[in-house]
Amino acid sequence: MYFFEKIGIRIGQKILDFGCGKGNYTIPLARAIGRRGLVYAMDLRADTLDSLKKRIFFEKLTNIKIIHSSDKLKIPLGREILDAVFLYDVIHDHYFTDQERARLLVEVNRILKPGGLLSIYPKHIEVERVIEAVEQNNFNLKQRMQVTLIHDDEPVEDVILNFSKS
User: Fold this and answer.
1) Is the CB of residue 9 less than 8 Å from the CB of residue 15?
2) In what side-by-side order are the strands of the sheet with 64-68?
3) pLDDT of the chain along its 166 residues, tens only?
4) For residue 165, which of 122, 94, 114 has the smallest C-alpha distance?
5) CA dihedral in degrees (71, 110, 50, 162; nearest 10)?
6) Who contacts 1 (Cβ-Cβ below 8 Å, separation ≥6)?
7) DSSP state of 69
8) Distance of alpha carbon 161 from alpha carbon 45, whole angstroms
9) 29: enclosing H helix or E strand
């Protein structure tokens, strides 16, 4: 929870965990923002969302909304409604071409409130390439942090990038 506080996550916020998988970040985010907040957990894979639903039930969390999407470039949320978007281990070349990545960042810009947080874990892609792509889409690099994260269910030391919407 301290990790989320350190990057500016607060009680009552609305957050999107894009490409949430089985919820390694969704669950702690839901705890960090409390019952007044809301985490949208979005993924393409129904099987991982089913695993997440079981975890949500087991943890008795009521502030997570599951979004199963068949389109990785459309986020079915309204304009400027979110305080933060998390793109953790999802924007690399395995999932997105450069053009698709740019289109995704336009969508993220659309749904984030002015000054909103875009937090990226740039696993499997060069950090400088990510910074350049994100800054070209009306975001400003605010913070570059070395942190302990979960990757493939194991703790790893790596970098995250935090941007604010211009």
Assistant:
1) yes
2) 64-68, 38-43, 14-18, 82-88, 112-121, 154-165, 139-151
3) 578 998 999 999 999 999 999 999 999 999 999 999 999 999 999 999 999 999 999 999 999 999 999 898 999 999 999 999 999 999 999 999 999 999 999 999 999 999 999 999 999 999 999 999 999 999 999 999 999 988 888 999 999 999 999 8
4) 114
5) 120
6) 28, 31, 32
7) -
8) 25
9) helix 26-33
